[in-house]
Fold this sequence. Notes:
Number of strands: 5
Helix content: 55-70%
Structural class: mainly alpha
Number of domains: 2
Largest sheet: 3 strands, antiparallel
Number of helices: 16
CATH topology of the largest domain: Fic-like fold
Strand order of the largest sheet: 3-5-4
Radius of gyration: 23 Å
Distance between the termini: 35 Å
CATH class of the largest domain: Mainly Alpha
Amino acid sequence: xxxxxxxxxxxxxxxxxxxxxxxxxxxxxxxxxxxxxxxxxxxxxxxxxxxxxxxxxxxxxxxxxxxxxxxxxxxxxxxxxxxxxxxxxxxxxxxxxxxxxxxxxxxxxxxxxxxxxxxxxxxxxxxxxxxxxxxxxxxxxxxxxxxxxxxxxxxxxxxxxxxxxxxxxxxxxxxxxxxxxxxxxxxxxxxxxxxxxxxxxxxxxxxxxxxxxxxxxxxxxxxxxxxxxxxxxxxxxxxxxxxxxxxxxxxxxxxxxxxxxxxxxxxxxxxxxxxxxxxxxxxxxxxxxxxxxxxxxxxxxxxxxxxxxxxxxxxxxxxxxxxxxxxxxxxxxxxxxxxxxxxxxxxxxxxxxxxxxxxxxxxxxxxxxxxxxxxxxxxxxxxxxxxxxxx
Length: 391
């Protein structure tokens, strides 16, 4: 085992003018060269993780594998819900919040809520991450980022940055953290991908360290946190920890974001244990949250079936669709169940009469219905994840 190297720093020239509206003192502080991080190359480094942390990682991994297996072959509806939940939790870490109803309508094209639209894009990025998990490459990570940002900022979507960035502050001189100069980004990303492709490190430890390195590199002008957490899900899928569902690890991170950000800081100082511990603890919490969500959905579905009784097959097909698509149009219902548009519309009306579906207005001139009980379950999941520890 080898000690994990802390980041180094290098001096870089700074010639940009002061930001508009800053004080004279701030202008003076933003002059001259600045210090930018130089991340270590980690492709061939073995993390030194103590026995206690190794045991925690093993316990978390067992829980994730068990949960993935619990849902069995009929996990597709839960997979969609858990992926949405991970996306919403990851977005909330960046202070992007919206209720499940707004997020689902945004996925159908409603642009009335900026936050909901951004979270809907994160759902798409997560879907892309899982789809690309078999080939974790610099190009495919860029594709995930493109999916995340193409609707909100197409000029930077999928583009590795070509300028210096910093975290908070009016200039790199006063910033909390200055990631590496953009000339170092591609070499660092090639090294990171090589680390992610190794098969001799426990998957959850590898995911935690890869995420911390990604956030240190900060390879994009924006959207690094959400892309980095999507990459975690892709890595867990690539390593076979999950086969059917996305474990909403961000819902565990969300319960104490201070510990999460402190762990990233510790990683940059060469201490890997806090970020590995935080991911292991968050994975265990995420499984707990996921099980409660699954129970709520199963309860809602049993209630729906009880209300339907001996309903027509077309109605039953649409009900079985609802965990995967809790906001539907008649056209969607027809396409996804294979019934005619007229049959789907009559079935939706029947479900509305039974109180299973509720009208939610129109999106793009098309009527939308929502499954209120399932949306309530998603909001309950978000509330549990958002009960943060206060400091």
